[in-house]
Amino acid sequence: MHSVDTRQDGFTLIELIAVIVLLGVLSAIALPKFVDLKKDANKAVTSSVMGSFYSAANQFHLQWIVKGQSASITVAGQSVPMSSTGYPDRSTADSTGCIEIWSNIMDSDIDIVVYPGASSVSEWSALRFGPACVYINHNGSTFSNTQTPFFSYFPSTGTGAGFNLD
Questions:
Q1: Cβ neighbours around 20 below 10 Å, total
Q2: What tens-digit pLDDT sequence spans the chain (166 residues)?
Q3: In the chain, what are the domain boundaries?
Q4: Cα 58 to the chain's mean position, in Å?
Q5: Are 121 and 112 contacting, i.e. CB atoms less than 8 angstroms apart?
Q6: Which of 12, 55, 77, 128 has its CA at a distance of 20 to 30 angstroms from the CA of residue 154?
Q7: Strand, helix or coil at 144?
C-alpha cells in the first residue's frame, strides 16, 4: 500500500500575519529615525557652509591687511567692498547686499535668493536683520525660527553665530 503524504510545505496564515505585524512594528520604530536624518543632514550642511563662509571672510580679511587696508580689494578681477574693520561688506544695506557678500566670497553653486523668496525652488535665502546678514537653509521648507538651521554674519566684525544646529 502506498502512503499518501498530505503534508504541504509553506507558511500558515498565522505565521504570515505574525511576520506582517512584526514588520509593521519595526517600521513604526525605524521610520521616525529616517525622517530625522533629513533634519540632521540640513543641520550638518548649514554648519559646514557656515564654517566655509567664515573661513572665506577671514581669508579676505587677511588679504585686506596685506593689501593695505583699502575700502575694497580685487579678487579674480572682481572688486569686493570691505568694512572699515576689513571684512567683506555689501554695497547696499539690504538683503540683496547680503547676497552680494555671499556671491563675492563663496565659490559655490548654492542657489540663494532674497528672503522671503521662492522657498520651494531655492535651497538658501538671505535676509538683512539689523547690522547682520542672516543666511537660511530652508531647503524648500517654510522658515521656522526654532527649527530651520541658519547662521548670521556681521560685516563689521567678521563674526556671527549658528542657530538650530544642535
A1: 10
A2: 566 666 667 788 999 999 999 999 888 888 777 767 778 888 999 999 999 999 999 999 999 999 999 999 988 888 999 999 999 999 898 999 999 999 999 988 788 888 875 544 568 889 999 999 999 998 777 777 788 899 999 999 999 999 988 8
A3: 38-163
A4: 20
A5: no
A6: 77
A7: coil
Please check whether residue 87 is in contact with residue 61, taking contact to mean a CB–CB distance below 8 angstroms: yes
The residue to which cell 509593521 is assigned = 24
Amino acid found at 116: P
**Which of 165, 153, 36, 18 minimizes the C-alpha distance to 99?**
153
- The answer to whether 61 and 86 are in contact (CB under 8 A) is yes
Write down how long the chain is: 166
